[in-house]
Amino acid sequence: MFETLSRGFRQARNRLAGLTELTEQNIETALREVRLSLLEADVEIGVVKAFLSRVKEKALGRTLEVKVKHGGETHEVSASDHFIKICHDELEAMMAHEGQEIVWAQSGATGIMVVGLQGSGKTTSCAKLARYLDKEGKKPLLVAADMQRPAAVEQLKVLGDQLKIPVFNIPGASPVEICAAAREHAKKQGRDVIIYDTAGRLAIDEPLMKELADIKSRTKPDNIFLVVDAMIGQDAVKTARSFHDRLDISGVIVTKLDGDARGGAALSIKEVTGAPVLFTGLGETTDKFEPFRADGMASRILG
Ligand code: GDP
Fold first, then answer.
1. Given the CA of residue 122, which atom of ligand 1 is nearest to it?
2. 132: buried, middle or exposed (CB in 10 Å: 19+, 13-18, 0-12)?
3. Dmax of the chain from CA atoms?
4. pLDDT at position 64, please?
5. Ligand 1 pocket test: which of 113, 120, 123, 124 has the largest number of ligand atoms within 8 Å of its C-beta?
6. What number does the ligand 1 atom closest to the CA of 120 have?
7. What are phi and psi of 255, to 5 degrees?
């Protein structure tokens, strides 16, 4: 995983090996390696540029700092370690989120609306999230409101049964009606988190967005999580931008990071949309789900 991303940083490190000083020239050489691998790993171009320019600025600043500290003698300082440390900090800052993953309701059940394109792993992620919250001592209710994909309701029911987490649906009702009725149902059943599995489509279109906007305005969820498939590379970022423009998503779940995804989506999403990656899907089963840690991801990329 992330081999493409890691390669550029490894090569940059090699370029700087044995050098004791970061100069404009060797910084440029190292950054060229990083640039290539970021682009190859599907990091969004604007994000690549911003990252490189921040690293360069810090690295040049660090050169001065080192010189001042050592009175002009830089022989004890490893250029490569300095460079990698700067990259680590910048990568982490690019992906980090402040505060908790989930915004909790002040009173009543916390609403989490989950949106995404068909096939992104949305229904699976709803079940994974429910399992995760259940383990945290919450009482989630899953709401099957993806009427677009006929099998989605059944799929969620099967997953709910396996996890012993209730699944709410009203056969024949519209997704908006189902979601609107779920709150009352959660109250009666003593459930404290409501996870709405909403419709997905193969592509973003107006009817989809309208339905999601209607559900949002009827249920007023505390969180809107977008599910994106890491395997679709640059398109994941475009998808995130479109959903965010329309729905103001609060966070992103990046799925299929267990595959041979190149990782660019996880790196670009917060920088492009402002909405951070909060969770990752790492496999098909419901236990393959983790909160996203920016520092851990930065360390894995840098090897
Ligand atoms: P939806 O149409 O967005 O609701 O997608 P599904 O939840 O049905 O998932 C589509 C496919 O992706 C299914 O075969 C899932 O098992 C698979 N899937 C979902 N999340 C992950 C993941 O994190 N890793 C892997 N490898 N497969 C996943």
1. 3
2. buried
3. 77
4. 60
5. 124
6. 3
7. -100, 165
Amino acid 115 reads: V
- Residue with the smallest CA separation from ligand 1 atom 12 is 121
Angle at CA 230, nearest 5°, toward 228 and 236? Answer: 55
DSSP 270-303: HHHHSPPEEEEE-SSSTT-EEE--HHHHHHHHH-
Q: What is the pLDDT of residues 161-216, one digit of tens each?
A: 999 999 999 999 999 999 999 999 999 999 999 999 999 988 889 999 999 999 99
Tokens 């460079």 -> residue: 83
Residue 62, both tokens: 């660090």
How many Cα atoms are found within 13 Å in the side-chain-facing hemisphere of 243?
30
User: What ipTM did this prediction achieve?
Assistant: 0.99
Residues 6+ apart with CB under 8 A from 46: 271, 272
Tens digits of residue pLDDT in 219-242? 999 999 999 999 888 888 889 999
